[in-house]
Amino acid sequence: MNRKEFIKKAFRIGILGGLTGGTLFLVTKNRIDYTCSVDGVCKSCSLLSSCDLEKAKESKKDER
Fold first, then answer.
1. d(CA 25, CA 37)
2. pLDDT at residue 30, rounded to an integer
3. Cα 22 to Cα 13: distance, rounded to the nearest angstrom
């Protein structure tokens, strides 16, 4: 392997490692707070349809 090929391969491996490491870093540091930021009144909340909290699920179930 000559010098040019070595540099190309090292660069590609470095980029791949950086992308993989960056992705893993972002995935592991994604700490979502699963508490309600609204008053806690689910029936009048505008985010009810996309909410995954237990209280909201119970409220959706009660509506049906």
1. 26
2. 64
3. 14
Ordered alpha helix ranges (H), the chain:
3-28, 54-63
Yes or no: say if 40 and 55 are a contact pair by the CB < 8 Å rule. Answer: yes
Q: For 27-64, give one letter per residue: b (16+ CB within 10 A) or e.
A: eeeeeeeeeeeeeeebeeeeebeebeeeebeebeeeee
- d(CA 64, CA 51) in angstroms, rounded, equals 16
Question: pLDDT band at residue 24, thresholds of 50, 70 and 90?
Answer: confident
Structure tokens at 48: 């009810």
